[in-house]
Structure formats: C-alpha cells, structure tokens
Amino acid sequence: MQGKQDGTLRRSPTVTLASLARELGVNVSTVSRALSERPTGVSAATVATVRRAAEQRGYRRNLAARTLRTGRSFTVGMTVARLTDVALASVYGGVDEASIHAGYTTFVANTLDRADLRRRRLDLMLGRQVDGFVLADSHLDGAAIGQLDDLRVPHVLALRGLPGRLSVTTDDLVGGRLVAEHLLGLGHRRIGVVAGDVLASTGEQRTRGFLDTLDEAGVDVPQHRVVPGLFDVRSGVESAAQILATDPDVTAIFATSDAAAIGVMATLRDLGRRIPEDVAVVGYNNLDLAEALPVPLTSVDSRLFDVGTQAMRTLLELIGGGSPGSLSLEPRLVVRASTVP
C-alpha cells in the first residue's frame, strides 16, 4: 500500500510473473521455472536473480491459478488423535517440514480417536479438495480407511499401521523386544505393563513384542499386570496404581508411551517408591522431556519426526502417480537413570 498526498491509501500494483519477466528482460516461462520448487532448464545464477527480484517486489504465487493449471490444490490433510500429544505433534512437525519443501500446505485435525469425529473431519477436509491424507490416528478396525478407498483419495498411514496398508511406522515389535531384553538383563522378573490403547497398532505391537520376549525367556506376566488405557499421563497414573495395588512386589514397569511413563513415575513418587532402586521405569518415543526429568527416563526412540517426514514424502510420491512401499523404521533403546542408577 502507498500513501496519496490526501492521506488515503492506494493498493500497490500486483506483481505478476509477466511484470517480473518484463523488468528482468526474460521470458515469463523462465521466471516461472526459476520460482518453481525444483527449477529445471534455468541456470543457478538466473534462479538467484529471479528469486531476489521476486522477494524485493513482494511477489506472491497465484495459488488459484496454479490449482486450475495442475488440477491439484497443493494441500494435504492430516488426522491425529490429539495434537496436544507431544508424540503426535512431533510426527506432524515432520509432515509439515516435508510439505513446506514440496510447496504444500497441511491441514491438521484432531479426531480424539472417535470414529464419528474422524468421519466428520475427513469430510470437512475433502470439501477443501485436499490432494491426499496422512492418517496418524488409524485404529486396527480400519473404519476410516474405507471411506478414502471408495473415493480413491491417496492416503498414507503414519506411526500407526494396518496390515496391507501403505504406511510409515516404527517397528514397534522390535521396540517392545528391546525393552524386554533390557529389563531381563537387569534381572527383573516381576514386571508390569501400561499397555496403552490396544486398538492402536502402536499399543498392541509394543506390548506384544515385549510380552513375547518375556515369554520366550520363561518369564510370565499375569493379565492383572497388563493394564490397557490411553497414551497419556492420567492413564499412566491410574494403570500404575492398579498394577501396584494387585502386585506391590513389582520391580519394573514398561509404559508404551513417555507420557504414560511420566504418570507411572508420579504414582511411584506418591507411594514413596524410589526409581530405579525400588521400581525401574521404561517409556516409549524418547521425547525431548524424557532426558530432562528429575530421574531421566529410559525410552525407545521411535523416530517420530522421521516418521512424519517419510510419510509426507511417500504421500507425495503416491499423488504423483508412483507406487511407493511401506516403511518400518528401526527403533533404538536409549538407556537412562530410570532403569540404571
């Protein structure tokens, strides 16, 4: 905007590809290629000159024109159970970074792990003509996926996977096994499990990998010591209290998320139990806060940001007509003071 002599404002002339081309003395197609995400057929010097001029003149892409030209909206939808969940926020961070590099915008919606809300949020984003979806809230029943199959909308599952579905996950069976091997190596035999959401592949597989490994070692974990719930602090508090009420001699507790592990630690504190001298605690996801806790938390690094980045790249390949395969990233156990003093 510029000021007139009478004090009113007038809008600055709109900067277009054509006006930039005239100013620089090049073809409009040269300017267009130089401003694309992956410039081809243009020298690096020309790209730098065009982009510098575009920035100085305040050029903005005409997204509506690009949509008409390509048939794409250059937006993707992402569903999560709760974006307040730091683990899911980390996955979203990876999705968003990859989308920025590709010139896409991401819409993210909370579904609270409710089937009815999931359908409504998908319908809302479909109404915005998104090019595809990253789904980070899938349940083992696969209820939401059929809707996208019927409409032939490209989609990729992230973090939570389903058999036969295109997904980017962490190998949670291996992650559970790593925790079991660690606790067995420390001599623990009376162990409790805060299993998380057993309708999500993450909760089911982390628990199964853990229990199968203990079973192979001849260590029995009775059902009353395996308590399902959610992946949050409150579930950790309540589940740990339930485990310790039925079996106060437990020497270790595995929680299938760091948030739940923090709840476990709170319960142990309130009961006067020391960590790890009385009860060892292991979490899952290796959030940044795990290392900063008063007793640093041993946790499985599930590479959340990488899961998001790879999920978005996989979706873009699918949107572009490719045939990508599922990815299962390798987890690693990060040992801290909550299991080893």
From TrEMBL:
Top-level taxon of the source organism: Bacteria
GO molecular function: DNA-binding transcription factor activity; transcription cis-regulatory region binding
Entry keyword set: DNA-binding, Transcription, Transcription regulation
Classification via InterPro entries: HTH_LacI (IPR000843), LacI/GalR-like_sensor (IPR046335), Lambda_DNA-bd_dom_sf (IPR010982), Peripla_BP_I (IPR028082)
Organism: Ornithinimicrobium avium
Pfam family membership, one: LacI
Domain HTH lacI-type: 15-70
SMART domains registered for this protein in UniProt: HTH_LACI
Keyword Repressor: no
SUPFAM superfamilies noted in UniProt: lambda repressor-like DNA-binding domains, Periplasmic binding protein-like I
Protein's name according to its UniProt entry: LacI family transcriptional regulator
